[in-house]
Specification:
By secondary structure, the protein is mainly alpha-helical. It folds into three domains: 24-85, no CATH class; 94-198; 212-338. It is 82% helix and 0% strand. The chain contains 16 helices and no strands. The protein has helices spanning 4-30, 33-49, 53-66, 73-85, 92-101, 104-107, 110-120, 127-142, 147-159, 165-181, 185-195, 200-249, 252-273, 280-302, 307-330, 333-338. α10 runs antiparallel to α11 and α14 (280-302) packs antiparallel against α15 (307-330). The longest helix has 50 residues, at 200-249. It is elongated, with a radius of gyration of 36 Å. It starts with a helix and ends with a helix. The relative contact order is 0.05. Residues 24-30 have low confidence and may be disordered.
Length: 341
């Protein structure tokens, strides 16, 4: 049997040996390419959080060099490209823009926004000038309610030859949306005419809105003509047959047809979509059909003995029905888009 002191010494020696073996094994694990890549990736993410972008770039590049097949290597390569594209000025512009982006208090401070706007003009050529101006525009619209400053920033992005394509699309979208919100379709059309190659989709959007405006104007003009013709026909009916004949024109038959189309269609649409906006086309259609039925009955009595008048009334009636249908469709942009309008 071993003496107690000797047994304790052996136990301690075994513990020390086990600790040394574990440390060596850990060191060997840490020395594997996957472990080095993981450590570099973690360091790079931490550096990026701390706005040390040069260190972050080196870390992401180390990931690809150590273990390009690691699960996180694609993310590292993506971040490497992103940082390389924004490396002008030794990352000083990127650090300034990111510090602004990450601080809601600065974004809500007009002086801080003005400072970034002025600093962007001194940035070296590259993406960061455009990104800085987009930050200025976004803060001006959402937080500072300064549309003029936003508009100036968006224009700078479009005019800067070093701006990237995504930044130009955002800037043009901001200008177009701002013009449309102000009801200035002409300004939006001017913008897409000048910069439309940046975003063909925006150009198509404005063209469609312009086309819809023309169709709306034409439809209203036709219905105004229908209304005038109906008033004239009602006056003729009243002269010939008095109030009794006029009451026949405005019978409940038209109300029943209009109510069936409008209320019935709207109810079915709401039961299917559960959206009030989807009911609008049927409501307009119901009212329009009711009006056109009254107009047709008035014209029928007023032109009963006049062939030319009857032909004219039929033509105007067809145009009126088409105008009603177009106004009903115009209340639903998705419906118009489905018809290519």
């Amino acid at each position: 049997m071993l003496p107690p002191v000797r047994g304790l010494s052996i136990a301690l020696l075994l513990i020390v040996c086990a600790a040394l073996w574990a440390g060596q094994a850990r060191a060997q694990v840490d020395a594997t390419p996957r472990a080095r890549a993981a450590q570099a990736f973690d360091r790079a993410k931490q550096a990026e959080r701390e706005l040390r972008f040069a260190d972050a770039l080196r870390g992401y590049e180390e990931v690809s060099a150590a273990d390009p097949s690691a699960p996180f290597a694609p993310a590292a390569r993506t971040r490497t490209r992103w940082l390389q594209q924004r490396s002008e000025g030794e990352f000083a512009p990127l650090a300034q823009v990111e510090a602004m982006r990450r601080d809601p208090a600065k974004l809500s401070d007009p002086e801080a926004v003005k400072k970034l706007e002025a600093a962007a003009t001194t940035f070296p050529p590259g993406l960061m000038r455009a990104e800085a101006w987009l930050v200025v525009a976004d803060a001006s619209v959402r937080l500072l309610h300064d549309p003029a400053r936003a508009r100036a920033a968006w224009n700078r992005v479009l005019e800067d030859p070093t701006s990237g394509s995504p930044e130009r699309v955002v800037a043009l979208g901001g200008l177009v949306d701002q013009s449309l919100a102000a009801g200035d379709l002409g300004a939006a059309r001017e913008m897409v005419g000048k910069w439309g190659e940046v975003a063909p989709g925006l150009r198509l959007k404005v063209v469609r809105l312009q086309r819809r405006g023309m169709l709306r104007t034409a439809s209203i003009a036709i219905l105004a003509g229908v209304a005038l013709a109906t008033i004239a026909a009602c006056a003729g009916v009243a002269r010939k047959g008095g109030r009794r004949a006029l009451r026949k024109v405005f019978s409940g038959y038209a109300v029943a047809i209009g109510g069936y189309l409008g209320a019935g269609g709207a109810a079915l649409c709401y039961a299917y979509d559960r959206e009030v906006a989807a009911m609008a086309p049927f409501a307009v259609l119901g009212v329009g059909v009711m009006f056109m039925v009254w107009a047709g009955r008035a014209w029928a009595q007023a032109t009963a003995t006049n062939l030319a008048g009857t032909v004219g009334a039929v033509a105007l009636g067809v145009a009126g029905v088409l105008a009603v249908a177009m106004l009903a469709m115009l209340t639903s942009p998705p419906l118009m888009q489905g018809f290519g309008l």
